[in-house]
Amino acid sequence: MLLTLNTSACEQQNLWLENKIAELEHAPVSNPPAMIIQKEWDSQTFYYIPAKCCDQYSSLYDQTGQLVCSPDGGFAGIGDGKCPAFVKRMTEGSVLWKDPR
User: Fold this and answer.
1) What are 31-81's pLDDT values in tens digits?
2) Full domain range(s) for residue 62
3) Residue 32 is assigned to a structural domain of this protein
4) Quick check: is 3 in a domain?
5) Range list of β-strands (E), 9-93
6) Can you list the alpha helix ranges (DSSP code H) found in 1-101?
7) Is residue 2 part of a domain?
8) Which of 3, 16, 33, 91 has the most CB atoms less than 10 A away?
């Protein structure tokens, strides 16, 4: 689906989330189930996707769908080391979507 010039920021945000959910739904079922957790910091919304398995990185996206960093996971469990300092102070978050399979 192509974005048009008159698409609002909220619609663009929803579009990337819908695309990410569709991507996760088409991936093999994971244990624990795939999920997207919405987190807040300084009036900004972020989306955290936990790693599917051991030694894999989790992902943290901003509200436009840009990957910010990998806050945890990997061999040492500490992520990619590229997260801004505020990531540690984010709210716990709420589950926005969880794979029902």
Assistant:
1) 899 999 999 999 999 999 999 888 899 999 999 999 999 999 999 888 999
2) 9-98
3) yes
4) no
5) 35-41, 44-49, 59-62, 67-69
6) 9-26
7) no
8) 16
How far is CA 32 from each of CA 21, 28, 54, 85, rounded to the nearest angstrom? 16, 12, 11, 27
5: left (phi over 0), alpha (psi -120 to 50) or beta: alpha
Q: Which comes out higher in pLDDT, residue 14 or 50?
A: 50
- Per-residue pLDDT of 83-101, as tens digits, reads 999 998 888 899 999 999 9
Burial of 55 (0-12, 13-18, 19+ CB in 10 A): exposed
The pTM assigned to this predicted structure is 0.83
| Residue owning tokens 């990410």 | 20
The confidence score (pLDDT) of residue 12 equals 65
Contacts of 35 (CB under 8 A, 6+ apart): 49, 50, 95, 96, 97, 98, 99
Are 68 and 61 in contact, with CB atoms under 8 Å apart? yes
69: tokens are 């960093």
